[in-house]
Design brief:
2 copies of one chain form a homodimer. Chain A is an alpha/beta fold and about 475 residues long. Helix content of chain A is about 35%, strand content about 15%. Chains A, B: InterPro entries: AB_hydrolase_fold (IPR029058), Peptidase_S10 (IPR001563), Ser_caboxypep_his_AS (IPR033124), Ser_caboxypep_ser_AS (IPR018202).
Chain lengths: ~475, ~475
């Protein structure tokens, strides 16, 4: 009886506490409230008429006044009780790819673009729950660095590279938290994929260091990070890519042997005769989607045998007609085209408060100019990862195992090089009745493969990805039995 | 003008010749005609009401009177002008798998089983043409050896193995041609998959040798053979399987290293400590479909986490519900279950003139008793293949590259061991606008990979398979440009 009274009391107190948290979260000063409201996205063109039960914001945050540099973000509150939920920052790679057009609109955001272009609700958005697990999150997408997506600088961008990206992203976060102070105390996680294998640990490192030396008001409650098909180490990532290509029947024995003989991937500078072999390998990218080996390419992009672009006959070539040729699970390989078209629409830009300075260039999903002008790219992120694991951060990596660009083989080599002790080796994990992939638990790091998923894991395996992020946030092992 | 008259004359003569061929083909003696008519399949239970525009036959051919051994066949004439078309014999592997229930009903036959079980027409059946190419074929399926599918012996089968299978299949062919003499002069090809990597070259070898020494009336007009995901060489097939499994992220580094350290695959006898590692590897088969890495398993077979068979709740678990989880292109992983059910139906057996002796055992798609009792299995088929290539036969191999059982890696090792000169190395081939896979032309052998296809290539990539067989029959290279 005493216990029951105690339980009731505890429940009342908890409820009161949660209520207070929500009330306090609304208690923003008028200026902050006005700034937030200015960024509030009320509705989106081609948005389905269903009611949106969460708030969303987007706009610019200045990170460097002298260079008139401003980074663009899109923020979605969790679908339920955002005040109690962690905050995830998602970063796409490239370098040069827009997190808004890629991660938000094609992978994990609540609205996904489709043919039209129009929008559909994402059943597996990361700001939603799953299996009644309450570990939904508030989701922040950042176009980073300047020159990517809607982010810009009115000065020259000839200093782009890993360092400036981390510094600018850190500055963005500090200023964004000033605009959204109600999220400052939330658990904070960074997630991303591909070249964000650099961005994510580098930003985490910047936060980690600044947290120690900065004033309390600049403290960011960083708890960990998670990266899919990450680019972490030039040596192992390159070596693994060619091994994977041979093992998956993509290149000849001759080319493979020649790459192995002529390339020393442990060197920071590759020889010309190595590059000559790599150039031969690169022709693969012109034929199949190396980011997802077994799905069709987009007919709107592919040159025909006569060398003419198929786009010219897009009215007669139905993309859906390709779906029966190779396994695809309904994946539309032209989504990137729809996203590009959607975010170039003036009404979409207006709704998102994007491109307010009316830059002359169109919105580009992956800006190769940014990538080509990259000044510094860290050879290996392994020392940074080791430092951050030792610093107590939660670190998870995952790998869609049908990606040829940053394949599972590469990440396995990378993990071996990292040299952590294995706590539990290579165990299947289940997504309902099917093996979702395999997982290895290291001391301080969890690695997960996603069976049959390409480079952009949430695009190819949305349900499995939501399962992974909810388990990451809950710091729980994925289920090792069918359910 | 003279040329035009000559052309007209040539056309008339050719037409007359073709007409004569057809007329003569109908001129069978009454006894043969009666035997054929006895085997004629008039209709099939659950056959769609569409008109079937080709003739089909099935029944038994005695191969060994002393052992009361009879092999069961199912034969489909080509959909157009069968008298002018080649004859293909298709063999499934195992050892122990029924060509009738597998190859005919799930892969390349004109009727495929589906849920119900019922039948559907196969758009890509190998007795049909494609792209207006006239190289359709007459299709013969054989349950081989006795004990497999509907084939039987009323005596003990304790001498089963490669040798007896080849001899019995040869005897079958001789007797089958006596029943269908109108096909005796046709170009004859053997096709198959998996363990038929043994059956096909061994039968070809038997025919090749017998053709030289036998009387003219026993001559079989063998022109070549084609095998998918073939089991050809114990050393390379085994080695390639584990390499493939590691490279595809299926096994731990530790298990892989342990297999490499403890197994000498060049030896005909593996050590116990090698087998111990292989047993660990084999547990993979309990979790995913190793014959098609990225498709779902059949929920009707899979044990649930609680150890109970899901079959018990098959009414609530719709197999189709799995399709959204991983790429599948509409492939139903329970087809083997439907085929087993279909061929056990008394009305189906009656329609096919099968199980006339009413054996006590049910029809089994893959009879493990046959495989387990196998007495001899040739270590390497490479000498046989070399001999047959030198003998002028057309030899093609193909490999679905998402098969984990006899993977593309294994066949690449095998081909290297075969040591033929390369005429054209690793070229993409196209299935319409998509890369269907890659192909290598050796002196005397063509190798083709099929992108994204599992072990039973025609099941997973039916259109590509029909494309391959039509090009094989026409002895033409697959297209190297999109069309």
């Amino acid at each position: 009886m005493a216990l029951s009274k105690f339980a009731l009391c505890l429940w009342l107190c908890t409820s009161m506490f949660l209520l207070c948290t929500q009330i306090f979260s609304l208690e923003l000063d008028p200026q902050t409230r006005a700034l937030q409201e200015a960024d509030r996205v009320i509705s989106l063109p081609s948005q389905l008429p269903m009611q949106v039960l969460f708030r969303q914001y987007s706009g610019y945050v200045t990170v460097d006044k002298s260079n008139e540099k401003a980074l663009f973000y899109w923020f979605f509150e969790a679908t339920s009780k955002p005040a109690q939920k962690p905050l995830i920052l998602w970063l796409n790679g490239g370098p040069g790819c827009s997190s808004v057009g890629s991660g938000a609109a094609q992978e994990i955001g609540p609205f996904l673009v489709k043919e039209g272009p129009t929008l559909k609700f994402n059943k597996y958005a990361w700001n939603k729950g799953m299996y009644l697990i309450v570990f939904t999150a508030n989701l922040l997408f950042l176009d980073s660095p300047a020159g990517v997506g809607f982010s810009y600088s009115n000065k020259s961008l000839n200093v782009q590279g890993d360092n400036i990206t981390a510094l600018d992203s850190y500055a963005f976060l500090q200023n964004w938290f000033k605009r959204f102070p109600q999220y400052k105390s939330h658990e904070f996680y960074i997630a991303g994929e591909s070249y964000a294998g650099h961005y994510v640990p580098q930003l985490a490192d910047a936060i980690f260091d600044e947290n120690k030396k900065s004033a309390k008001e600049n403290y960011i409650n960083l708890k960990g990070f998670i990266i899919g098909n990450p680019f972490l180490d030039y040596e192992t990532d390159r070596r693994g890519m060619y091994d994977y290509a041979w093992g998956h029947g993509l290149i000849s024995d001759a080319l493979y042997q020649s790459i192995k003989a002529k390339c020393d991937f442990s060197s920071q500078i590759l020889t010309q005769e190595c590059w000559d072999q790599i150039f031969k390998y690169n022709s693969l990218y012109e034929m199949i989607d190396m980011f997802s080996l077994y799905t069709p390419t987009c007919a709107l992009n592919a040159p025909s045998s006569s060398g003419k672009k198929l786009a010219a006959r897009s009215n007669t070539v139905r993309v859906s007609g390709l779906f029966h040729m190779i396994p695809s699970a309904g994946h539309d390989p032209c989504t990137a085209n729809y996203a590009t078209e959607y975010f170039n629409r003036p009404d979409v830009q207006q709704a998102l408060h994007a491109n307010v300075t009316k830059v002359s260039r169109p919105y580009i999903l992956c800006n190769s100019e940014v990538g080509n002008a990259w000044k510094n790219s860290t050879f290996s992120l392994l020392p940074t990862i080791t430092k951050l694991i030792n610093g107590g951060l939660r670190v998870w990596l995952f790998s869609g195992d049908t990606d040829g660009r940053l394949p599972v083989t590469s990440t396995r080599y990378t993990l071996n090089k990292l040299g952590l002790n294995i706590i539990e080796d290579w165990t299947p994990w289940y997504s309902h009745r099917e093996v979702g992939g395999w997982t290895v638990t290291y001391e301080g790091l969890t690695f997960i493969t996603v069976r049959g998923a390409g480079h952009q894991v949430p695009m190819f395996a949305p349900q499995q990805s939501l399962q992974i992020i909810t388990h990451f946030l809950a710091n729980k092992k994925l289920p090792s039995l069918a359910f």
